[in-house]
UniProtKB/TrEMBL annotation:
<feature type="domain" description="Multidrug resistance protein MdtA-like C-terminal permuted SH3">
    <location>
        <begin position="287"/>
        <end position="345"/>
    </location>
</feature>
<dbReference type="Pfam" id="PF25954">
    <property type="entry name" value="Beta-barrel_RND_2"/>
</dbReference>
<keyword id="KW-0732">Signal</keyword>
<dbReference type="InterPro" id="IPR006143">
    <property type="entry name" value="RND_pump_MFP"/>
</dbReference>
<feature type="domain" description="Multidrug resistance protein MdtA-like barrel-sandwich hybrid">
    <location>
        <begin position="65"/>
        <end position="194"/>
    </location>
</feature>
<feature type="coiled-coil region">
    <location>
        <begin position="99"/>
        <end position="164"/>
    </location>
</feature>
<keyword id="KW-0175">Coiled coil</keyword>
<feature type="signal peptide">
    <location>
        <begin position="1"/>
        <end position="25"/>
    </location>
</feature>
<keyword id="KW-0813">Transport</keyword>
<dbReference type="InterPro" id="IPR058627">
    <property type="entry name" value="MdtA-like_C"/>
</dbReference>
<feature type="domain" description="CusB-like beta-barrel">
    <location>
        <begin position="206"/>
        <end position="280"/>
    </location>
</feature>
<protein>
    <submittedName>
        <fullName>Efflux RND transporter periplasmic adaptor subunit</fullName>
    </submittedName>
</protein>
<dbReference type="Pfam" id="PF25967">
    <property type="entry name" value="RND-MFP_C"/>
</dbReference>
<dbReference type="InterPro" id="IPR058625">
    <property type="entry name" value="MdtA-like_BSH"/>
</dbReference>
<dbReference type="InterPro" id="IPR058792">
    <property type="entry name" value="Beta-barrel_RND_2"/>
</dbReference>
<comment type="similarity">
    <text>Belongs to the membrane fusion protein (MFP) (TC 8.A.1) family.</text>
</comment>
<dbReference type="Pfam" id="PF25917">
    <property type="entry name" value="BSH_RND"/>
</dbReference>
Length: 367
């Protein structure tokens, strides 16, 4: 009976020991694979790239100061002209007639002034001898003053007629190039009506159309670099000279003009340009990350940084300098070389152990 009572215990103990030997130790937590790459420093903080077009610093329409019929045109679009060169001619007949009439009026006024001067001299001599009344002397002096004023007025009319006659010839007031032709021979033109488009030689500008969301970051004097597809390998320094105070009513963009510091002779009007504006803010230690790496901790921007010591994640606040189309510039919070989660930032948590991997597609890597 005692043997049968101990039998269940003898069988249970080996089974318990066997079960204990077969139980495995708990596995360590598996690392989560994440796309994470080292961030890169930016050489000179770039505010953004914009397409532009080369223009002359001074561009304006050329027109006659007087009205008339266009009888001759000596240049056309694309011609390079020198200062003082004749460009077009109006019919000079009317201006010539006005000049002749003004000269005739001046000659008559000079004769009247000569007679009035002689009469004044006689009356003043007779007045000293009390041969004429004081009233007659005053009338003579008044007639002389009127004749003198009429002569001066006639002189001014002659000068005006000479100018009007000279204005029938349109001449270049500066070295430059004809950019457009806006009038044809035989056309009757009003004073001030454009005949040619004209661009001065010398200084060259780059014109940009900047969206209203980006114009606040641009200031007068801001530096930039300019490259042109037509001149590969050439880089030109420039700076912002003018910012339009109002947006274009059609495109809702702001015209920004940059002056090229040393244009040389290679830059031609109308060339397309790629302009890289430098930030107006101090660059400091800045890094660039893809826009997909940005995470928001409440209202504050942050990024997931992989700690090098234990490969765990840390959510770190950062200071944004500029938002680009595909990238973000960080001014504070990151250092070059630190590994940052580039994609899937909403699927990870702080302190999580990760295994950094490269993007599956090379084009997804930050440039």
């Amino acid at each position: 009976m005692r043997r049968r009572a101990w039998l269940p215990y003898a069988v249970a103990v080996p089974l318990i020991l066997l079960a204990a030997c077969g139980r495995k130790a708990p596995e360590s937590e598996a690392a989560l694979p994440v796309i994470a790459l080292p961030v890169q420093a930016v050489d000179g903080l770039s505010y953004g790239r914009f397409p532009g077009e080369i223009h002359a610093r001074y561009e304006m329409p050329l027109s006659f100061r007087v009205s008339g019929q266009l009888t001759a045109r000596y240049v056309t679009a694309g011609d390079v002209v020198k200062k003082g060169q004749a460009l077009a001619q109006l019919d000079p007949a009317d201006a010539g007639n006005q000049l002749a009439a003004a000269k005739a009026a001046l000659e008559a006024a000079e004769h009247r002034l000569l007679f009035a001067t002689q009469q004044r001299d006689r009356d003043e001599a007779q007045s000293k001898q009390n041969l004429i009344s004081q009233l007659q002397l005053e009338q003579t002096q008044d007639a002389y003053a009127s004749a003198l004023a009429a002569r001066d007025q006639a002189k001014q009319q002659v000068e005006l007629a000479q100018n009007q006659s000279r204005y029938t010839m349109l001449v270049a007031d500066h070295d430059g190039a004809i950019t457009s032709r806006q009038a044809d021979v035989g056309q009757v033109l009003a004073a001030g009506q454009a005949v040619f488009g004209f661009a001065w030689s010398g200084d060259r500008d780059v014109d940009l159309d900047v969206p209203e969301s980006r114009v606040d970051g641009i200031v007068i004097g801001q530096t930039a670099t300019v490259t042109l597809p037509a001149l590969p390998g050439r880089v030109f320094a420039a700076h912002v000279r003018e910012i339009a105070p109002a947006a274009d009513p059609q495109s809702r963009t702001y015209l920004v003009k940059l002056t090229i510091d040393q244009p040389g002779t290679l830059l031609q009007l109308g060339m397309t340009a790629d302009v890289a504006l430098q930030s107006s803010k101090p660059s400091g230690a800045t890094v660039s990350i893809p826009a997909t790496a940005l995470f928001h901790q409440g209202e504050h921007p942050a990024v997931w940084v992989v700690r090098p010591a234990d490969a765990t994640l840390e959510l770190r606040p950062v200071t944004i300098v500029r938002y680009g189309e595909r990238d973000v510039l960080i001014a504070d919070g990151l250092k070059a070389g630190e590994r940052v989660v580039m994609q899937g930032v909403h699927t990870v948590t702080a302190g999580e152990k990760v295994t950094p991997i490269a993007p599956p597609h090379p084009e997804d890597a930050p440039q």
